[in-house]
Design a protein that fits this description.
The protein is an alpha/beta fold and 369 residues long. It is built from 14 helices and eleven strands. The strands form two sheets. Strands 7-6-5-4-3-2-1-10 form an eight-stranded parallel β-sheet. A three-stranded antiparallel β-sheet has the order 8-9-11. The longest helix has 22 residues.
């Protein structure tokens, strides 16, 4: 396994561009970059531009991962670039993106099912609770679209990997993977997003591990708040996600899995209020929307939250408001990435997991701290 970082959220990614971001990540001791979509690397799918990015990754000895976009026909109109790249034909757009990825030997490709709307609070932020189309129909439409893309993926030797995105449960992902075929569809396991679906990250990891082919490694604080629970991203090792239990499960299923840190994005790059996300965990309509959730898992989840609340009360962990008030520019984001990677490395070392040794750049970065 190798430890890398999100190609969209690494600091200054927009100004540096993909090639320079690879160099930046290498300087920070990261072993790879995961660009969310191939259009993040080249909006026009320029073959020469994509080859240059691949060449830079190879030159630096880094992994290069990427993806496509949303595969829910009710959600992908909100990303018009997916249709535009196919000159109006969205299936052709996906084919072109997949062919471009295959040409640079990127064959594990991120896809997702819907969108999170940060302008709204609680369940209305999630497409799962749209009132114009039921979530069951969105899942059915997603399954049909995956069925359309599957023959293309098989021809190209590609896996389409569905993320544990904010709106979908791990139970639903398993059903989608098994319906399409695990030879062509897998999972991007985001270790913290499952918290928003009231799933315990360890339990979710155990359900998903046989299908996990890419990752977003991240952590979050979950605390009681008015209206439910508050979710706030934190560096790995400082939230509720138990990497001590999760990483051995993932490594046992896929010992060559890349572990990509997804950091909170710098306020210099994306100025915004640092809000927490509201999980309406005790609302009857919210709970009814999670029919697979068991009493046993919910009990383990609540116990995890109560344990974290005790850590805040004891002063072991910082509360949400104080954390949100801290400066968070370039230097703080780099620290977030490095401390997260250090935590993942320490867990891997503790359990003797197969992790590629630090790059030369990583050793240099460590000595320069």
């Amino acid at each position: 396994m190798r430890i890398g970082v999100d190609g969209r959220k690494i600091p200054e990614s927009r100004t540096r561009g993909p090639v320079n971001s690879l160099e930046h990540a290498h300087e920070l001791g990261m072993a790879g970059l995961f660009f969310r979509t191939v259009l993040d690397m080249s909006p026009a799918l320029d073959a020469a531009e994509l080859r240059d990015i691949r060449s830079k990754a190879d030159e630096l000895g880094m992994y290069l991962e990427t993806g496509l976009g949303k595969v829910n026909p009710y959600a992908n109109p909100e990303a018009p670039e997916l249709r535009a790249v196919g000159d109006g034909d969205i299936v052709l757009g996906f084919r072109r993106m997949m062919e471009a990825c295959a040409a640079i030997d990127c064959r594990e490709l991120w896809v997702a099912t819907a969108n999170y709307k940060s302008a709204y609070r609680g369940r209305w932020a999630y497409d799962r609770f749209r009132t114009d189309v039921a979530w069951t129909e969105q899942l059915a439409a997603t399954a049909r679209f995956l069925g359309t893309l599957a023959p293309i993926a098989r021809d190209l030797g590609i896996h389409l990997n569905l993320e544990t995105h904010e709106e979908i449960t791990s139970f639903e992902l398993v059903r989608l993977v098994e319906a399409a075929g695990s030879d062509v569809v897998g999972v991007v396991f985001d270790t913290a997003n499952v918290l928003q679906r009231l799933e315990h990250p360890v339990w979710a990891a155990e359900r998903l591990a046989p299908y996990v082919r890419q990752t977003h490694i991240k952590d979050a604080a979950i605390t009681h708040t008015e209206g439910g629970l508050a979710y706030q991203m934190r560096p790995c090792g400082t939230g509720v996600v138990d990497f001590d239990r999760i990483l051995p499960v993932l490594a046992a299923a896929n010992p060559a899995l890349n572990l990509t840190i997804e950091n909170d994005e710098s306020l210099d790059d994306l100025p915004r209020p640092r809000r927490t996300m509201l999980i309406e965990a005790f609302d009857s309509e919210f709970l009814d929307g999670h029919p697979d959730l068991t009493v046993q898992e919910m009990a383990a989840y609540v116990d995890m939250v109560q344990s974290y609340d005790r850590q805040i009360r004891s002063g072991e962990r910082i509360d949400n408001a104080s954390y949100a008030a801290l400066p968070y520019g370039y230097a703080e984001t780099v620290s977030y990435i490095r401390s997260s990677a250090d935590h993942v490395r320490s867990v891997c070392a503790k359990h003797d997991l197969p992790v590629e040794s630090d790059t030369k750049a990583g050793n240099l970065a460590e000595s320069a701290r």
